[in-house]
Amino acid sequence: MLNVEKPYPPLLIRPSYPARPRAREALEVHIKELIELGVLTKVGNNEQVEVTTPVIIAWNNGKSRMVGDVRSENTYTIPDRYPIPRIHETLTQLSQAKFITAMDALKGFHQNVLTENAKKLLKIIVHCGIFEYLRMPFGVKNAPSYYQRMMNTIFPEELSEGLLIIYIDDIIVYSETWDSHLARLERVLKKIVQVNMKISLKKCHFAYSELKSLGHVVSGLSLGIDKNKVAAVLLKPMPQTNKEMQSFLGFSGYCRQHRKDFARISKTLINTILHECHDSVSAGHLSEYRTLERVKTCSWWPNWKKDVAYYCQTGDRCQQANRATGQEFGMMIQIQEPKSPWEIVHMDWVTESPPGGDRSYNACLVLIDGYSKTPISLPCHKDDTAMDTAIMICDKYISHTGLFQNIISDKDPKFTSALWTNLHSLFGTKLSFSTAYHPQTDGLAEIRIQKLEDTIRIFCSYGLEFKDSDGFTHY
Questions:
Q1: Which ranges carry the Integrase catalytic domain (predicted)?
Q2: 434 and 441 in contact (C-beta within 8 Å)?
Q3: CB 119: neighbour CB atoms within 10 A?
Q4: Greatest CA separation for the chain
Q5: How far is it, in rounded angstroms, from Cα 462 to Cα 247?
Q6: Do residues 185 and 173 make contact, with C-beta atoms less than 8 angstroms apart?
Q7: Full 3-state SS string of 93-138
Q8: Can you tell me the distance from the alpha carbon of 144 to that of 108, in angstroms, rounded to the nearest whole number?
Q9: Conformational region of residue 166, where left means phi above 0, alpha means psi within -120 to 50, and beta covers everything else
Q10: How far apart, in whole angstroms, are the C-alpha atoms of residue 122 and residue 51?
Q11: Average pLDDT over residues 381-407
């Protein structure tokens, strides 16, 4: 049960704790009672003592209880891995049960006799001397596993036949009929008498259809949480620190099977943790990395890193107040729909073309009517100036369609020159330029240029001279 490798660590040899007069009186009463029950015995003067465990008095509702400080012994104890049943899985076996009997062993741990090696490691020291445990005390690391193994050894056939449930020192007998329940209960009680096990009558409940056991209210039809435990949680104040929040989440997570939409409700608690670690005055709306460092020191939940990242990236205050490090965004202006032909014209250049025609044209100016989507192509030269372009448009285009109200184009040097801007200022024409690296602004002209290049490529691919098709296309 208690196995610590020698030599024993010096930390296991400790003096007694100081106690007030009231606590000393309570200690003496408890020690006297345990000696009479055969649980404790006083260590002789000549006996070698290698381990001493101090004890304290814990008070609950005016009642005292002796508690040994065995934390150091538990640290150096080799753990016993014998499994303890899961409460929820155990209680689900009571479905369809109409008669339930619950019994509790009287000071169950004290009913187990210790081995000689275990006795050497379980000596307590108080103001009135050193005492040795003869039976298993409470608080020892391996005590629950050891006791569970012992109980399973006592009732192997009953467990395999499904006659009862054993959870450490709790025994639950259940059945669907009254006769079978009496038969099972008689069989279990005979086994209890046979092994000389003592049962606490105050904690026994015989043949109930519904009762409280293992912190739950169980019956053949339902399984719920004890209302007294829930009431204790409701009386607690709102968690103010991360540690209090962790404690509350731990208990509420245990009760999640009895609460509808628990995940949705607990989401608000997660938001409280995120607010504390990012939005509070002490957190200061720091970066995503700093918030991750703060959260991981106090909390954990599934996909917590994604939740922290999303919370930091979508916070309104951070987005509004943080300094922008990139290029400032321009004001988005939507292109208005034209109400009449030639009101809005899209304009762009086609360059890097092979020379063709009598005048060796190597470029083309494409104009698209935004209303009717009618395209017109004007052949020209790549090195034409802004003056040449203005004369060409006035001579071949404006003379037929009239002045434009708006011209949409890219920021070609010809379209941004002083001559071009001053000329259209006199005409009353508005010049609208596309943003850099965003040809979608003048998308109508871009699409028409692609179609123009495809058409020229088709006519040239059959060995035809370009002049053979000149004048027969829309361009």
A1: 337-475
A2: yes
A3: 16
A4: 128
A5: 82
A6: yes
A7: HHCCCCEEEEEEECCHHHHCECCHHHHHHCEEEECCEEEEECECCC
A8: 10
A9: beta
A10: 7
A11: 83
CA nearest to 278, candidates 300, 295, 303: 295
Task: Note whether 209 and 98 are within 8 A (CB).
Answer: yes
Of all residues in the chain, the percent with pLDDT exceeding 90 is: 1
Record the pTM: 0.52
Residue 433 bridge partners (DSSP) = 409
How far from each other are the two terminal CA atoms of the chain, in whole angstroms? 98
- Strands across the sheet with 223-225, in order? 210-213, 216-219, 223-225
pLDDT in tens, 123-175: 888 888 888 888 888 888 888 888 888 889 999 888 888 888 888 888 888 88
Reported as type and span, the H/E element at residue 419 is helix 418-427
Q: Which domains does the chain have, with CATH numbers?
A: 10-224 (3.30.70.270), 236-317 (no CATH), 344-469 (3.30.420.10)
Pairwise CA distance, residues 454 & 283, whole Å:
61
Tokens of 334: 């939507």
Query: 131 near 66, Cβ under 8 Å?
Result: no
